[in-house]
UniProtKB/TrEMBL annotation:
Keywords: Acyltransferase, Amino-acid biosynthesis, Diaminopimelate biosynthesis, Lysine biosynthesis, Repeat, Transferase. The keyword Coiled coil does not apply. Belongs to the transferase hexapeptide repeat family. This is N-acetyltransferase. GO terms for biological process: diaminopimelate biosynthetic process; lysine biosynthetic process. It comes from the Bacteria. GO terms for molecular function: acyltransferase activity. Signal peptide: none annotated. Pfam families: Hexapep. The lineage of its organism: Bacteria, Pseudomonadati, Pseudomonadota, Alphaproteobacteria, Rhodospirillales.
Length: 206
C-alpha cells in the first residue's frame, strides 16, 4: 500500500490491499482520505485526494478514482471502473466493470448500472460494456441503466427510471417506460456539493 500523504484514516475492520492475484499492484491512497469500517479495497486501486467511503463498501481492482469522491455505505464497484473528480455515489449502489463516470456526477441511493446484455448467455459473442456517465449527470434514487448506454453531459434521470438507450446532453429522463425530454432550466446548473465549492471557484460551470 502506498500513501506518502498525511490525513489518512483507515478504520478498524477495513481491509486495504486485498489481493485477488499475487501479482496485483498496490493501493495508492492520497491525503484527506477516510475508509470506514467494513470496507474492502482490493489491490490495483488508485484513490484521489479527499476520498471517503461509508461502511461496508467494496472496491475491486483496476479502479481509478479522482479527487473529492464519496462512495456510500454498501456500495460495490466491481473493478475496471474509471471515476473522475467531484463525484458522489450514495448508499446501496452497484457499479459493474467497464463503467466510466465523469466529473461532478451524482448517483443516488439504490442505483444499479449494468454491463451484461444477456446474463450468463451467449458469453462468447460479446464483451461486457458498462454505461458511460458524462460530466454533470444526475441519477436519482433507484435508477437502472442498461449496458453500453451513454448518458450525455448535464442530463438528469428521475427516480425509478430504467434507461435503455443513449441520452443526449442536457436531457431529462423520466417515467416507465422512460422517455427523454428537454432539461428544464432550473435543472441546468451542474452538480455541486457544499464541500466542493472552494475547489471549484475557477470552474466556468459553477
Amino acid at each position: 500500500m502506498g500513501t506518502g500523504e498525511p490525513d489518512i484514516e483507515i478504520q478498524p475492520g477495513a481491509i486495504v490491499g486485498l489481493k485477488a492475484k499475487e501479482e496485483a499492484g498496490p493501493v495508492v491512497i492520497r491525503g484527506r482520505t477516510r475508509i470506514r469500517s467494513g470496507s474492502v479495497i482490493y489491490a490495483d486501486v488508485d484513490l484521489g485526494k479527499d476520498f471517503q467511503t461509508g461502511h461496508n463498501v467494496t472496491i475491486r481492482g483496476h479502479t481509478t478514482i479522482g479527487a473529492h469522491v464519496v462512495v456510500g455505505t454498501n456500495t460495490v464497484l466491481e473493478g475496471y471502473v474509471e471515476i473522475a473528480d467531484f463525484v458522489k455515489i450514495e448508499s446501496n449502489c452497484f457499479i459493474p466493470t467497464h463503467v466510466k463516470i465523469g466529473t461532478r456526477v451524482f448517483i443516488g441511493p439504490g442505483v444499479t448500472l449494468t454491463n451484461d446484455r444477456y446474463p450468463l448467455k451467449n458469453r462468447d459473442e460479446y464483451e461486457p460494456e458498462g454505461p458511460v456517465l458524462e460530466d454533470g449527470v444526475t441519477l436519482a434514487a433507484g435508477v437502472v441503466v442498461m449496458p453500453g448506454v451513454r448518458i450525455g453531459r448535464g442530463s438528469f434521470v428521475a427516480a425509478g427510471a430504467i434507461v435503455t438507450k443513449d441520452v443526449p446532453e442536457m436531457s431529462l429522463v423520466r417515467g416507465l417506460p422512460s422517455r427523454i425530454y428537454a432539461l428544464p432550466e432550473h435543472l441546468r446548473e451542474f452538480n455541486i456539493a457544499l464541500s466542493w465549492r472552494g475547489f471549484l471557484k475557477n470552474s466556468s460551470d459553477q
